[in-house]
Amino acid sequence: MAASTWTSLPTEMQLSVITLLSKHDTRSLSITSRASHSLCLPALYHDVSIPSAAALRIFPVAYASHTRRLSVNTKTGQRVPVTDALAALLRSCTRLQSLSLSLAAPLSAQTIIPAFSGLICLDNFEIGCWGREEDACLSERLVVALALSLPSLTHLKVSHVSRSALHVDPTTAPFDVPLALHDDDVVLPENPAADLSLPALLRIPTLKSLEVHDTWLGCDTEFTCDTPLPLATPLALPSDTPLRCDTSLAGIPSPQCTSPSLQRLVLTGSMYHQSSSAPSAWLARIEHIDHLELGSPVSLLPPTPVDEQAPWRAAFGDYPTASFVDEAEEFADEESTSNDAPKRRSRSRSRSRSSQPPLPLPLPSITHLHIDAASFPLDALRETMDVLAACGLVSVSVGYTSPVDAPREAFAFDAKACAKAPVDTSDFATQCALEDLEDWREAIDALLLVSSPASQLRSVQVALAPGVAARWEL
Whole-model pTM? Predict the structure, then answer.
């Protein structure tokens, strides 16, 4: 009986063998014959990593239909446009399931957004700015527009996103926070009036995991979550409309304002400026979430007052405060005394409206909380846990997590297994972890002593390094 050769094997068996080969062996096999090259193409281009803009421009887009996972970095020695090359590549990736973009140069929204609409299989999307945000500004409007163009998106990670001046008052933003300017041309072709502010990501219906890293959220303490008002359309109110705040404009949370499938939310805070009330503003727009990961503290969000400013704030931004209006009316009273009684009656009505009781902002139910010990300030643990006490937390974990290398299940580590690992006390990082563990132990012990008996918390675990861990069973 003659021995079987590679070419005599059925195609299905050849493909099964190729899936067992390493990348290097697959490449070697592909150059043995034209038939082997065709069989190896799906394996060779299944995972593609493009390290620079120069590599992007020379990539063979004819083979992109085999790509399932794609990572692109557009870094370059000089500022050159890469939008056309990236759009051409994405239009050819008809079976793409995972995409990671690290952008070193701005993209043209008119070219790149239509290319994203054809990625119907893409469920994992990561996008961030490579380098300094001042040099390569990644507008929140572009990020949201791209995410909304993906019909199957379930996992989204954004990092180093610049907030748009269309959604943020530049006079109230910290001086060291870069803002995206001149991005009013970023719109969705099918819905030009769609809200493209960063909190709109919470409304993606298919989204299960959302990570927001190194992005300033301090401007989101008052964002609304119901049907948004287009920024280009001023709010028209009849002249006889009472100056009252309607609940649809007051930022009152509702279950319909977030994705019903959202299970995980990661908020690491900003590398420029911390705002402890911003995470609670995002949480107030969610009804339930399984896993929450924090890299910045959470403080109690001031309740939204029922006053006369809300309709104008929703449409245009900040409006003169009640105290400013009162001072202006008092100045008018001093200038003219002929109409003194009507003016004082108007001022009393203004004060009575602004003194009405505030509307509460409830927080969602949360099953698990993970705290990133690398960026979370230890002295803010007590306040954060007090704010989240009403969320029904069942378990809390603390550990060092990397925004780049940590897997999606990084919060599900086992402190018992970590504690059994050997401890290398000669390692400097381990010594630092041991010192940090003692600090966390003292803070958690003090926190548990004053915890409410009605608390649903059942376990707290800290794992900072192999062998450096602690666990509390309640």
Answer: 0.76
